[in-house]
Amino acid sequence: MCSGGFAKCLGITLLPLSIVCVLCNILLFFPGGEIVSNGHITKQVWFFGGILGSGVLMIFPALVFLGLKNNDCCGCCGNESCGRRFAMLSSILFAAIGVLGAGYSVVVSGVAINQGPLCHFNNSEVDEWVQPFSNGNYLSNKTLWDYCIEPKNVVSWHLSLFSVLLVMGLIQIVLCAIQVVNGLLGALCGDCCGCCGGSDGAV
């Protein structure tokens, strides 16, 4: 498979991942599937890791990767291949943007998982809306989850969605890193499919 075709496959993979991340971030605004006041939403949700980082910022490299396969590479200083080489080189910049965006989402998700959700916490010492699991101790002690009485099932909701964001972000980082290597190879060696003059169809 030529470097442009491989980049297109990466772009096709990144798009649905971006959509999933945006949806997860939106769902986090409804903890436990309930509508709550803005002050009762976990602060990490407002950092928009899934919407901005793994969502909007990932759309740009995905679209660029998709377009590399059909890039018109003819007529560049008399060299038919230099247009595609430049396109592959420029895709490295967009891949780097994707890495930064996904990395931001991963960091936000990791912090959110460690600190746990904001909830109405009720035990012998506390009866208020707090973010009680600041050191991640709730991950191995599910009995603590029962003390979060509102919203219902908020801990599992929070943990599940941020875990999805974390995993999706890591996958996006890997895919963009692969495109960095693919872009370098495409820029240095050219597209093995060739271009212009009848060799476009060769794979």
Topology:
Layout: H1 3-27, H2 49-68, H3 82-115, E1 119-122, E2 127-130, E3 148-150, H4 154-189
Antiparallel strand pairs: 1-2, 1-3
Helix pairs in contact: 1-2, 1-4, 2-3, 2-4, 3-4
Describe, in plain words, how this protein is organized in 3D.
Belongs to the L6 tetraspanin family. One of its GO terms (biological process) is negative regulation of pancreatic A cell differentiation. The chain is 57% helix and 5% strand. It is elongated and about 70 Å long. The protein contains four helices and three strands; from the N terminus they run αααβββα. The model is unreliable at 72-78 and 194-203 (pLDDT under 50). The protein has 203 residues and is mainly alpha-helical. The chain has one domain. The chain has a three-stranded antiparallel beta sheet, with no helix packed on it. Helix 3 (82-115) runs antiparallel to helix 4 (154-189). A hairpin with a 4-residue loop joins strand 1 and strand 2 (127-130). It starts with a helix and ends in a 14-residue tail after the last helix.
